[in-house]
Amino acid sequence: MHLRAVFRIIILTTTLNMPISSFINYLQFEKRYSPHTIKSYQTDLGQFFIYIKSQYQMEDGLEVGHFHIRSWIVSLMEAEISPKSINRKIATLNTYFKFLIREGKLEKSPMTKIQAPKTPKKLPSVVTTAQMNIVLEDQLDESDIKSFTDYLIIEILYQTGMRRAELVNLLVGGFSKTGSTLKVLGKRNKERLIPIQKQLVEKLELYLEKRNKILNKAGLNHSNLLINESGKPLYDKYIYRVVNKYLGAVSTQQKKSPHMVRHSFATHLLENGADINAVKELLGHANLAATQIYTHNTIEKLKRTYKQAHPKA
Predict the structure, then answer these.
(1) Catalytic: 163?
(2) How far apart are CA 228 and CA 239, in angstroms?
(3) According to a count of CB atoms within 10 Å of the terminal CB, is the N or C end of the chain lower?
């Protein structure tokens, strides 16, 4: 979000009767949402408050009615905002007004009469096993820290299915040589251990030696596992660029992101007979419903195989 928009939100939320700070504290300390998720909530609420202030000159956010919200939704549709994004904003308002009821500031939520627009079901985009093998069989120059880091980004993402933010926040202490595991700090600060193959364990051992030499030379001291050429911790955009570059060599998919590797990890496990509950734990999902979307890709593959092979198909 642009700095100017941030200032507008700050001004509005301090002049209107809108307990934003207590709501953000609730998300951060009670719900233990990630900084990225909290930022999304702040952005959505800020956009809504700007709208009702400009359109209805509303001075008290507690007076919001369902017609104000419907009007905002219509304006989003007219601006050609995707149904998925609109639904996220509706979910934000739902959580916010439920919080106000809990705090005794509202008796009834204005969201009860709001219907979310339907979104078309879209299967997760994945790369094939063969495509991932091509990417990971690329010649690795272990003497060059950038090449080594870029390779490990893809290898770790595909072997573990972790999220981009989880990869960025990997710590040296989270790598266990004896246990062949990586400790991941997931959403809501939940930790999980993910097993890794012996080959990756050996590569990480070698990488740590090179990493430590670079940090000592640069006079740096931090616990992040993966670093750039200067010895500094990696950041989200760096991870995205590397994944986009590697997958771009083997896939024509429009969006080639770290989450695509995560989708591929889950799909390939299920295709090879992995128990869905085990996949759920590896991904760090809170409930099984979030994992079940990957079974659809597997079913679609089975249907194609059936049509090609069965004489009655």
Answers:
(1) yes
(2) 11
(3) C
